[in-house]
Design a protein that fits this description.
- The protein has a single domain, classed as NAD(P)-binding Rossmann-like Domain (Rossmann fold).
- The chain is 48% helix and 14% strand.
- It is built from nine helices and nine strands.
- The strands form two sheets. The chain has a seven-stranded parallel sheet, sandwiched between helices.
């Protein structure tokens, strides 16, 4: 029986690229996102594997638990969970919509945590049965420093990285793989959604396909942290040693509008 991967935020960007990669490597897919129409189109495109479409708005409370229960009721076993869903907002913290920032926290942190918690026991069982199993969480190079004008987004990705590293420590010595993908600026709908098309950070991006490929290969090779792109890796490394105030000022320049 083919292994099955659950991918969140699968309707576009990195999620769509991950769907193609896992399908090409023999995985059946469970795809979730808000846009059911796009998910159905991907299902038709990737018809050489079994694709289950499970629309869900992960910005809503308890949505992760609901998705888990839905798959449990349908006897769907998950070998790999890809927590890819997430979004950002650009602007001054107290001028951005509180509701949207709360939804960002729900998607980027709470739903990711709920899904990881719910599916990890099943993933452990699959690993114990000799199947390659694990979790691939998508964080960001933003996880390594504070980020003025995108303060909640940067904080949420720091949470994802810290949570993933902590769980990876708990899983050491088991066959369950925990990988955190930390991409830099990527060619997706991220900057449009964040209303940050004019930010300096948006002027230099990697393709979603290239980022997903590095993330997938790093996961299969059992790497704990994957940072696609040499300059992104250098920047993440440097952020560990720079004074926090300097790292914050650099992020502020990149998150601000291009002059």
């Amino acid at each position: 029986m083919k292994p099955t991967v659950l991918i969140t935020g699968a309707s576009s960007g990195l999620g769509y690229e991950f769907a193609k990669l896992f399908a090409a490597n023999g995985y059946n897919l469970v795809l979730t996102a808000r846009n059911e129409e796009k998910l159905q189109q991907i299902k038709e495109e990737l018809s050489h594997v079994d694709v289950m479409v499970a629309p869900k708005d992960l910005s809503q409370p308890h949505s992760g638990e609901e998705l888990y229960q839905q798959l449990l009721d349908q006897d769907v076993s998950i070998n790999v969970l890809v927590n890819n869903a997430g979004f950002g907002l650009n602007g001054e913290f107290d001028k951005l919509s509180l509701k949207q920032q709360q939804e960002m926290i729900q998607v980027n942190m709470t739903s990711l945590t709920d899904l990881t918690y719910c599916f990890l026991p099943e993933i452990k069982k699959q690993a114990n049965a000799g199947h390659f199993s694990g979790i691939l969480n998508v964080a960001s190079t933003a996880a390594f420093q504070p980020g003025p004008y995108m303060s909640v987004y940067y904080a949420s990705k720091a949470y994802v990285l810290s949570l993933s590293e902590g769980i990876a420590g708990e899983l050491k010595g088991t066959d369950v793989q925990m990988t955190t993908l930390c991409p830099g600026a990527t060619e997706t709908n991220f900057f449009k959604t964040a209303k940050a098309e004019n930010a300096k950070l948006a002027q230099s991006t990697m393709s979603a396909g290239a980022v997903a490929k590095e993330g997938f290969e790093g996961f299969i090779k059992r790497q704990q942290i994957v940072i696609p792109g040499r300059m992104n890796a250098v920047g993440a490394f440097a952020a560990k040693f720079l004074p926090r105030s300097l790292a914050s000022n650099l992020a502020k320049r990149f998150n601000g509008a291009q002059s």
